[in-house]
Amino acid sequence: LHAIFAHGKEASRKQFIFREEQLWHDPPAYYEGRFLEFATSLPPRLKQEGGFDLIAVQLHQFEVAAQLAALLDRTLVLPRLRCGERTMAYPCYAWYHRAMAYFGLNFAKVPMPEVCPLYYWFSADRAERQGLRFREPNFLTNPRVPRHISASVATARVCHRQVAGSCGGAR
Description:
Blueprint: H1 8-20, E1 35-40, H2 44-49, H3 52-71, E2 75-77, E3 99-101, E4 104-106, H4 118-121, H5 124-129, E5 134-135, H6 147-151, E6 154-158
Parallel strand pairs: 1-2, 1-6, 2-5
Antiparallel strand pairs: 3-4
């Protein structure tokens, strides 16, 4: 596989997809280091409603976590963001979000996945160019990660600043 995907931007995207599925075998050094994972905190209203605000709040929390990881000199383990259960929960007009009818487009609403696929909101190439060190969301469940690394991961919970108790009472 390394020879097939060895060049260009498309190569790194495919490599990232294989890593996310735990099908890519990296050298042992990839699994070593200091890591930071984070959990998002969502206001109850957004959990029920979904929508673009749900994505925006999580992306803001991701930015905070990325800055914290840089300050702590840790590699950020990417989160799984919620898209929401609401149909067409955010303004995306891409062809693959529209239902196809027998004679063309069906403008009925299409349900979105509860968990956003990583490629909806994250660009690995752009993150690398900006110096963000990151790992795929399921990195810590990968059997190649040494136990001493899994046990030493720091976890940050980024709270929603406008909702009291959004982190279980923490502010």
